[in-house]
Structures are given as C-alpha cells and as structure tokens.
Design brief:
six-stranded mixed beta sheet, Rossmann fold
C-alpha cells in the first residue's frame, strides 16, 4: 500500500527513447498487471526530446494519446494539441513540476552535458531530479548532490547502474553504519556478452552485431567496448558508496578491443573465463579504481554471470562481502529503477 | 553521519550467546575501527540469559565490565553489582527501555516460545523489538507484525535470514511497488557445507563434525539436517515478501539425512551439484513452498555458493530476477543485522 506525500506528482521528462517510453507504459499499466503501482499515477506535464519534438501542458498532457502517437510516428507533431517548440532549458526553468526525469543519453565527450545544466537548474529551484543518465552522476556527482542537499530536494539515479536492481538505495537504506572498503563487479552487458561469445568461437564483430540487434549496446558502441560505460558506473559507485570524489577520467581503463578468440578459448581450457571487471580498492591507503579484463576461475561466482546480467560485490568493515546480482535485465528493469526512485521521493 | 531520533536508545537483551556478545563488542568498538558506528552508543539496561544469570540497571549497566566478566566466567554472578534474580517476563513488562533485543535460540518444538510471549509483551507496551531469533517471525509473523503496527512501533528481524545481508530491509525500502512472485535460494549453511564436503568424498558424520567445530551449526543439529532451519527461513520470507501467512509446518520439507557420498559424486560427474534449495512459487494460483535437495547445473550461479555462504533469488512483476549473495558470513554479520535494525529504528 503506497501512501503519497503529494497528491499527484507532476513530472517533466527530458528524453523519450526506449526507457522513457517504458516508464510511460508503467504509468499507463492496468492495476491488475502491476497491483503495487495502482496507487501511483503521476501527471506528466511535459516531454522534451532532442530532435523528435516536444509536448507541454501545465494541466497534464494526455499521456496515453501522446505515447501512442509517438510510438507510431517516432515524433511529437503539431497534430498533438500540446506540441511546443521551445528550448528545454526554458521549460526546466519556468514550468511548474515536482520532479525532472532525465532519460537522455550518456555523453562522454561532453562530460554529461547538457543534462548537468538542466539538472542544476531544476535543483536550484528545489525540484527533485531522477536520472537514468549516467553522465550527470559520474561527471558532477559532488556538485549535484551537495546542491540537492542544500535545496532540500533529491537527486536520485538508481537506474544508472544495474538498472532497477538496488545498489544506491541499498547503500543508503540498508548498509547504515557500514564503511565500504572495496567494490568489484561486472557492470557492462555488452562486453560481458561479447567475451562469452568469443569463448564459443564467435568473432568480436559478429558478437557485437548480435548484441546491437538485442538492443543493449550504447548508441556509441565504443563507450562499451573501450570500457567507458563501466568506468562511468564504477565512478558513480565510488562517489556514493566510498564517498571519494573521482571522475571517470581517473579510472584506469582497459577495453576489450584487443582480446582475441584464442585468448578467450585458451583461458577456458585452463578453467578460467575472461571478464571485464570493475574494481575499487585501497592500496596503501590510496584509492585505486580500474576496469580491466581479468581471468576469473570457473568456481568463482563472477564467472557465472552471463548474457546481459551484472553483479556487484560490496566489501564493508562490518560484514563479510555481500553481492547483488541482476539476471538478464530488460528495458523494463531500467524503467522500474526510475519508478523506484519516484516512489522513494513521493511515498512514505 | 547518523542522526539519532532519541538521545540514547535503552536496550534490554534476552540471550547473551555468541551473537549477543558480538553486538556488545560492536557497541564497545573503537570509533577508529568502525567509524560509521561512532555516533551510536546505546545504553544496555539489562541482559537476561536462560541459565547463566542476569544483570539489570535502569541507569545502564557497565557494558564493558559485564561483557568481560561474562566472557571470563560464562555466567553473570553476584560479583556484578547489577546482578538480579528475577523472571525475564517481569523485566520485559516493567523495566523502562526503548527496544527489546531477542538473541535467544530457535525452538521448533516450542513453536518460537517463550520468545513470542516476551516480544508480545514488549510490543503491547509500544516498545520496539529486534529479533535475531527466527522462531517468533516464523511462528507468529502476522500477530506480531499486526501488533507492532497497531502500537506504532517496530518488530524487525533482519538477521533471522542471511544474517546482516539485507533481505527484509531490501524488500521494505528498495522494492517499492513490486509484487514478489517467487523466491528461491540456499539459506542453510550447515547442509550446504556438508553437501559440498560429500562431493569431495567426506562422510556425512565427519563433515557435520567439522561444521560444528567451525561454530555455525544450530544447537540442535537436526534443525539443520532435517531442513527445519531452511523451512523456518523461507516461511519468514514468504510471510513478508509474498504477504502469505504460512507457518513452517506447511513447508514441504526434505532433509539431507538420506543423501549418500555416491549420489553427491555421481551428480558431480554429470556436471551437477547437490544443493538444499528453498523455493516458494505459485502453481495454478496456489502457493507452493518447499525445501529439498536439487541437482543444480554447474553453470548455474547457485552451484557456486559454497562454504557458509547463502543466496536468495527474488522474482517480481516489475523486474527480471535479482539476487542477494552473502559470502562466508561470520558471527559479526549476524550482529550487524541487529545493529542495522537498531539504526533503522533509531536514526533518521
């Protein structure tokens, strides 16, 4: 039973790709399909896309109609009574809403912009922000979290790492009093998938194409292959769970571009599996962070994380390590991560 | 940074075995050792044991002295100025305290008594309860949780399943809006340890003795071997996560007593591992719960949970399955589970 803190939260979307659309679908879902969400029907007051138009209605857009129209024509058009042609920044700064939802894509070369600017502007107005975009949390973690604290609002990004599987919420809610002393895990699906395929003798290019076909590769696939996606994820985790203000540029980063089928199969024959592993640990009191390809023994739990699955191992001063595993997530898992953050903010 | 809701929580302990003593050690720990607990130093106003004496001081017992004396002589004696000889129930009903901590042992034959009675009496006075004892949550889940709700206090039991690794807190805090549709896992260390040893050719009796030596076997080892401990754990999980009011007697239960070395090794040769698996799932809309020995394929993540480790797989309507893994916990993990519940209750 969800008890709402505000009658109907009003949301402004930036981006409306696969994840944004799936969030809308969850809002529109029948109560019978997802009974736990039946008391939570927020009002969407605007959706902005980069190049596919925008809609705004301060009294709430017709989400079902707008969603159906967008799915059909891949564009908001003037046929929609709420169609607007105004810059995103103006909407962020001037509309009345309770939460900004950033489901735009990661930009490594722009270091998380323009999302960081939009999020900063919302937080300055004491408006909550939920971001599935990894960029802002990775490149401006400290600034945005400090600003949110100062303005007594929230900047949450559960779905930036391991989609809806709780990692940030787990740390915040369930590891109280613990000092996190180390992190490791498999956090990038594309490289995990390709390395598994190479063990079976499938060439890198073919495996990449299959991954792209399945839809979980970053728009710029080199973000995955070169380890940027994983570096960005371990950066956000280190910032929050280890309270160390690093950026992705400080992560020692090794991609999988140079790995050969022979290497993958040779490791296999010796009882190992090649895995792209993220690590953060202290060595002589100095924090080390890295993404690199490691040989993981066959009896290690990491070696059984296959397909698009991921795993995070958390070391603390108070417990032996615990792990969170995510089994073959789909786009709905990412969408649930956003809904989960909204429920954290707007329900008791 | 922990912000306390009450200045100094006052605690009453029932039981002071390994877990209770480890909780005391955490309270007494140096700030440097566990910096996250430095702001949390509760006052212990009483400790009752079944047959090893009791101490009470409404202004707070001297925890360090009492702990050292108990560790040395295995008994509270009249040498302790706070030594008392009164029934537990009177202490529970009459002393002034903010939380009852139940670290007494599981009683299957007594269906969770006398703990259930003590907990009921505390809750009736609107006093919070944290229990590491699985009995009360398994045999009186609904009654005690309803009573706690009615009395506006908490009945928490994080360490009853998977020690400090968050499962109940994870569900409560991080899976908001999700409907849990199925559970499975390895939740009993003793049987997991023995089955692993049998694969290596070690006889059941010898493996059991080794487990007992390592200190993780229930006082009545048949609680482990016959599947009662696992049945009790899946019962509590089903009550909370699936909101189904079952008791351990309704769980289909198969122990490991009849498993032979030959069976374990034969499975191994075929690429499988024998594991005592707990399951809860719906079959034609009817909830099925069971503990049984299954053959788990070598490439399944469950097969890599070894030693005293455990794993829980949670299926929901909103995400693909997630898992929580606990790696070789020690007694401090259980103690942290209790501290974690106290922090949930007493900090913001």
């Amino acid at each position: 039973m969800l008890i709402l803190k505000v009658p109907v939260p009003r949301l402004l979307f930036i981006g409306f790709g696969n994840v944004g659309q799936k969030v809308a679908e969850l809002f529109l879902s029948k109560n019978k399909t997802h009974p736990g969400l039946s008391g939570f029907k927020p009002q969407v007051i605007g959706i902005f896309t980069k190049t596919h138009g925008a809609v705004v209605n301060q009294a709430g857009i017709n989400l079902e109609k707008s969603f159906n129209q967008f799915v059909k024509s891949k564009h908001f058009t003037q046929a929609n009574p709420d169609y607007v042609n105004i810059p995103v920044i103006e909407a962020v700064q001037n509309l009345d809403y309770d939460c900004l939802i950033d489901v735009s894509g990661l930009t490594i070369e722009k270091k998380g912009e323009p999302s960081i600017t939009y999020i900063r502007e919302a937080l300055k107005r004491s408006i909550n922000v939920v971001s599935a975009n990894k960029g802002p949390a990775a490149f401006a973690y400290k600034e945005l979290h400090s600003l949110a604290d100062k303005q007594s609002c929230k900047f949450l990004h559960e779905s930036a790492v391991m989609d809806g599987a709780p990692v940030f919420n787990l740390y915040r809610n369930n590891l109280k009093g613990c000092k996190v002393t180390g992190l490791s895990g498999i956090l990038n699906s594309t490289t995990n998938f390709i390395l598994s395929k190479m063990e079976e003798g499938v060439a890198y290019e073919k495996a990449l194409k299959e991954a792209q076909k399945q839809g979980f590769v970053e728009d710029n696939y080199l973000n995955d292959i070169d380890g940027w996606d994983a570096a960005v994820k371990i950066t956000i985790l280190v910032n929050q769970l280890m309270e160390a203000p690093i950026t992705p540029f400080e992560v020692l980063r090794e991609g999988i571009g140079n790995i050969t089928i022979e290497q993958a199969q040779n490791a296999c024959e010796r009882g190992y599996h090649l895995k792209a592993i993220c690590r953060a640990f202290y060595e002589k009191n100095i924090l080390q962070t890295r993404v690199s390809v490691e040989e993981v023994p066959d009896d290690h739990i990491f070696s059984k994380v296959s397909g698009t699955g991921s795993i995070l191992r958390i070391e603390t001063d108070l417990m032996n390590p615990i792990m969170v595993v995510q089994e073959n997530p789909s786009i709905q898992d990412t969408a649930y991560g956003i809904v989960s953050d909204l429920l954290s903010i707007f329900t008791q």
